[in-house]
Amino acid sequence: MSDPNKISETANEACSLxxxxxxxxxxxxxxxxEKIPDGAAIILGAAxxxxxxxxxxxxxxxxxxxxxxxxxxMIIDGKTKTSTLFFTITDRSARNEGINLKLVHNxxxxxxxxxxxxxxxxxxxxxxxxxxxxxFYTSFKPExxxxxxxxxxxxxxxxxxxxxxxxxxxxxxxxxVKNLRERFPSVTVRDxxxxxxxxxxxxxxxxxxxxxxxxxxxxxxxxxxxxxxRVGVPEYEMAAAFEYACKKVGARDVAYNTIISSAExxxxxxxxxxxxxxxxxxFIVVDAGAKLNNYVVDIxxxxxADGKFTPRQREIYEVAYAIQEACKKVYRxxxxxxxxxxxxxxxxxxxxxxxxxxxxxxxxxxxxxxxxVGMAVHDVSPGLRGPLRPGMVFACDIYAVFPDEDLGVRVExxxxxxxxxxxxxxxGLPRTIEEIEEFMKNND
Length: 444
Ligand code: GLY
Ligand code: MN
Hints:
Elements: H1 22-35, E1 39-44, H2 59-65, E2 73-77, E3 82-86, H3 91-96, H4 101-105, H5 107-111, E4 115-117, H6 122-131, E5 135-138, H7 150-162, H8 172-183, E6 189-191, H9 193-201, H10 205-227, H11 235-247, E7 253-254, E8 259-262, E9 283-288, E10 290-292, E11 295-296, E12 299-304, H12 311-330, H13 337-350, E13 369-372, E14 393-402, E15 407-417, E16 422-424, H14 433-439
The chain binds glycine and manganese (II) ion.
């Protein structure tokens, strides 16, 4: 009889190692080290989940280590320019999590992280650094787990717990800061999130290549959802078609709860109850993306349930689509929102649109500049207010709602700023009215 405690190495071969080459993670750590020459950054990995939820590493730990091991932590030393990863896991637990045992046993070789120690060495290491005059940098902002976005999570937890007089708990990260300050009163503890957010907001060529893959997978899933759309179909069937298309090619999750708005639900931009059955005359806004290996994209599309635009749907959609196309033409390094707006209007005028019409005055139909996208759908960033820079990945999002008409429109793609313009990472959907009507002509 085979020993149930013996872990099969061969069965483990298929489990993945790192998403990117180890040099990618080393260069991320090196960039952070440059920002903290007087100290060390402490990255807390995600804890094992309760119950039967699947373990998801948080985005910061994934970003700097590439390692999806529960209950790990890492110290990135800005003085010695080396890093240490701390974890303790049994082979059985590792296999249970789908972790390749090579990663557990040859961590230094595989990850390029200089030192790997058991987790019980974390506290003594912190003490040694504290006694050597190190400043400690750690994120004061919440970790991002599945479908979470740090900035929103922070606001939510502040209101729901920290500022709730019947609760009052600190978020995990701020409790850690408090613990550090109590244990090492002479150490200065600073927020690392501005540095981390700055680094994460500019994507490397490897990240962009991966995001392009996530983009194409998501476009195909949108097309599958569009093919499943017709009068009489419940919205949940559309959402299921999207999710199935993502998962059948190996995506682990969707980027966020797929959003489907139609009729009276248009004003609610994150509507996800899927409680309508599509009717003739309905115009649908779907906002959905896949998540593949910790990266996501954000795409919205708008189309009629019966595949045929009414004159009013056509009027609104043509304008939203033309503005979004114009935005993608003017995005380039150095350009700012004000100039984008001017140049977009110029393009539309030259295309024969009457830009004095109300549709062109709606604030969300101007520049398309929305949130960053990357490891989270509303990815961390120092903001999009400044000039665009190569490597910025963000949602180019044009939308408007018309509650009196039970109507809404959204045209959204995930784009990256290149050396001299922009690339649409989610290109390939039927987008013109003609393309949409043709695509939906013979729907299932
Ligand atoms: N895709 C969801 C959002 O951007 O809010
Ligand atoms: Mn978005």
